[in-house]
User: Which sequence fits this backbone?
């Protein structure tokens, strides 16, 4: 039976550091935003299931804020490491932007160029975000091992290179459409 991959994202985050549901969402929105997305509607039900299965446990509860911090258990770590050692399937690409671009040949070129410029701007914003994270990483992040930093840097580099390639593609395509 194929399991929801959200559980592995959450187990992976908790394997780095005990966290609240809010902390997990924040990590998804910043550190891994370019590779994985989670929303509160997935996080909290998954935390509940993982706790029921014994993969995580409540570490503490802040009575005033009602925030519950979770930590991974040995059972959760075993499940995470088992998943990490499985073959990874290549996910089918679903890009609304590219689908629109593909079918936009009958639109006026200036409309398509505007669409490309908007996409290019989003990619430039993504690139700047990754560069900012990389700069923070190079400055040193407290409580992160050198080994973990190497993997985080490699993940950020992929985001940087992918963003640069998208920007370059936009520039080339805009140039071709202008002539």
Assistant:
């Amino acid at each position: 039976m194929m399991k929801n991959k959200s559980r592995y994202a959450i187990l992976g985050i908790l394997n780095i550091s005990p966290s609240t549901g809010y902390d997990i969402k924040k990590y998804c929105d910043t550190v891994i935003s370019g590779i994985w997305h989670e929303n509160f509607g997935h996080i909290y039900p998954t935390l509940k299931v993982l706790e029921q299965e014994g993969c995580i446990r409540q570490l503490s509860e802040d009575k005033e804020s009602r925030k519950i911090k979770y930590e991974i258990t040995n059972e959760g770590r075993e499940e995470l490491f088992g998943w990490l050692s499985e073959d990874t399937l290549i996910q089918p690409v679903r890009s609304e932007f590219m689908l629109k671009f593909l079918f936009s040949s009958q639109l006026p070129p200036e409309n398509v160029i505007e669409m490309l410029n908007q996409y290019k701007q989003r990619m430039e914003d993504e690139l700047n975000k990754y560069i900012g994270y990389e700069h923070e990483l190079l400055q040193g992040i407290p409580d992160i091992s050198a080994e973990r930093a190497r993997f985080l840097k490699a993940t950020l580099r992929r985001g940087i290179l992918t963003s640069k390639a998208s920007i370059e593609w936009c520039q080339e395509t805009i140039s071709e459409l202008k002539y």
Remarks:
- The radius of gyration is 20 Å.
- DSSP finds seven helices and three strands in the chain.
- The chain has two domains: 6-84, 96-178.
- The mean pLDDT is 90.
